[in-house]
Structure prediction request, 389 residues.
Amino acid sequence: MDHPIEETFLTSLKLTNFRSYQSFALKCDQRHVVLTGANGAGKTNILEALSFLSPGRGMRRAAYDLVARSAERGGDGTFAIHTELSGISGPVSIGTGVQTGSNGLVEPGRKVRINGANALTSERLLDHARLLWLTPANDGLFTGATADRRRFLDRMVLALDPLHGRRVTDFEKAMRSRNRLLEDPRCEPQWLEAVELQMSELGAAIVIARLQFTSALAAQFATAERAGPFPQADLALGGSLEATVQAHGDVDDAGHLEDFYSKTLRDGRHKDRAAGRTLHGPHRTDLFVRHRAKDMPAALCSTGEQKALLIGLVLAHARLVAHTTGAAPFLLLDEIAAHLDRERRASLFSLIDDLGGQAWLTGTDQSLFEAMGERAQCFHVEEGVITPV
Prediction:
């Protein structure tokens, strides 16, 4: 059953020593936010800061020492982000960043504080906000590396399953341990068996979560009244574990998949040792996307069609997140309007507005966002200074 959709919006953003911003403060209301300015003005840096309200390393996946303002510009290796927002659980104050310890050295990892209290893990951010983003770096998703599509898929799954990111991280750690054990001629068999058991449990959970997500997204596309200017997509997953689930016919049977993967790892030790890596598992999954109306692989569509497919995919995902969590997600859309004609821009803005969550959009030209009218608050960004338009 669908829950009533709660509106989500951010009212305050403060940055300290983040990228190009030594000190930055912005107050806003619950309307969408449009940031315009020349390339390199610092617009994307603001969206990146907001993306740290989600687990992980943000939309650019940058190392924290690159995110912190450089020493040449007065930084000390730390950075801080503070926000006030109305999210899934109501009004909340969230702070995150990298800080120095009592020894004066920069501490590893980033800390999260929610309403003034330290959060045990960054996954607790998902209790308050779900963030989805689309950037120019995603434009080559369908024709680029498999790893990029897999990361894109896992970000989508994480927005619905807060435990998914931790499973993926733990699986990768276990896999690296197995690879090291395979290189050691003195390795005891029981050590391999223990790590392979862990990998099979985590791997099965990852694959099932991904398959359940693609099924839920397909259902979301099916309920859409019309595709509009952004075509619907069909998603499929490619990999030996996915094929096993589909052949077995039960996406919820984790036990069967765990047994299969455990046997695959055990039987594949010789080949994996020779290859120097693990050849089968969720780390090899690929995401296949097809243009539904044309019944054509996304990779073979035109550049414009691929962009429209991506936007349609993100909008469908946003609707799914809203109906699943009961609260609309925040959308971070970098240079989203640059290659859309006037009609598609107007349609996109209306679809964003219908979602019920706050969207943050960037562009070089204010005229691109005229169709938003009073639905958005607009700011101009220039050399780290932001002014209302």
About this structure: The two ends are 42 Å apart (CA to CA). The longest strand covers residues 9-18.
